[in-house]
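Dissemination and training. As part of the outreach component of the grant, students in the summer workshop were shown how a complex can be specified as a set of sequence lines and then modelled as a single object. The example used during the hands-on session is reproduced here so that future cohorts can follow it. Participants entered these lines:
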Amino acid sequence: MLMNIFEEAAEVITRLENNGYEAYFVGGCVRDSLLQREIKDVDIATSASPEKVQELFEKVIPVGVEHGTVVVRYKGKSYEVTTFRKEGTYSDQRHPDEVIFINNIDDDLKRRDFTINSLAMNKEGEIIDLFNGRADIEQRIIRSVGNPKDRFLEDPLRIIRALRFASQLGFQIEKNTFLQMRQQQKEIETVAVERLTIEITKLFQGEYVQNGLNYLIEVEAFKYLPIFKNHKSLIKKLPPLTAFHSFAEVIALLHYLDKSISISQWVKEWKCSNKVRSEAINLSESIEYYYKSGLDAWLIYRLHYSNVKAFTHLVKIISNDLNYSSNELTTYKKQLPIQKRVDLDFDGHDLHTVFPDFKKGPWMNKLLEDLEYRVVMRYLENKKPKIKEWIICHPPEIN
Ligand code: ATP
Ligand code: MG
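and obtained this result:
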């Protein structure tokens, strides 16, 4: 019996088969269904070329045609459909020199990183298991497909991927695989940072993050990761951890542990997005405020909604002295007198009518921020006459 999520995806496979091609579910979705874990996305491998797949389905997004991958949109869902392929040699250790499309799935499974990721399943739910991936799933083992040395040299990102699966699944790493991770770890430096960031983010988000980090320290792979390579004791400063919500949260914690490394440096060296940057700054400022002034409405007001869980988690890690859950903080935040400065019942124009003779200048912003603070803290009611009364009694100082 297939799980629901596969039943709909099976229609994609049926269409490929009806047109004379082979197609299977592959990779993470097969592994996670055997583990009865939540399946994030269903990937499909097929003998049809990317061009053929584009012909057979109405909505196809050509995300990586040269590597054989397209995204098929079918009944409102997305499926990554990749043509069976084997990879040529890797002279730059990043991309195979050539991608060769092939007709049968065996060689496609052989190019995959770990036995637990090299299973294929047909639409009837029957599994193709060329490398004993099922037994490794049962025994909770991460093991390279083929010779680990060659596989890590081919693509050293796999060293970090092994750590991230150890963190997500709580599995042990097979001895020889582990040995070669240690041996080949310096090759990590040749991997594009963006690829590392994706895997390290997943590592910190894993349910068994401590398992992944213990391996990261044991393998000493951190010695070849941005920033950690120049601050070798940093990783060992981390207290016992549970799953993070975002890379921004990781950055905020690491910055808290070593202030000499700025958030900007983390963001730059790990090539993070502007979103990660702004979330990390917001979290870091909230943490600083918390340890200086405690939890109050002003902190909650400025903390982004998207950061509430991360904030709660960070305080738990650092001092475990927060008496509120993230849900309680979110409810509290929703009930604040205002959500944003524009919600103030007073603006720059109103300021000008109260002080028509004052020239525009930085004092306006300063005063509005002061009003914002007073209203949020409930020292002042958010009503124009009340605010007006208050500022008349407390006129701004203008130099
Ligand atoms: P997740 O559930 O986190 O997405 P996943 O196993 O699907 O895990 P992906 O990174 O999405 O991981 O990769 C999909 C599949 O592609 C893997 O299961 C593996 O078979 C193969 N794969 C991905 N990256 C590599 C790599 N660097 N080397 C070899 N095989 C890889
Ligand atoms: Mg996946």
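DSSP finds 19 helices and eleven strands in the chain. Students were then asked to discuss how this feature might be tested experimentally.
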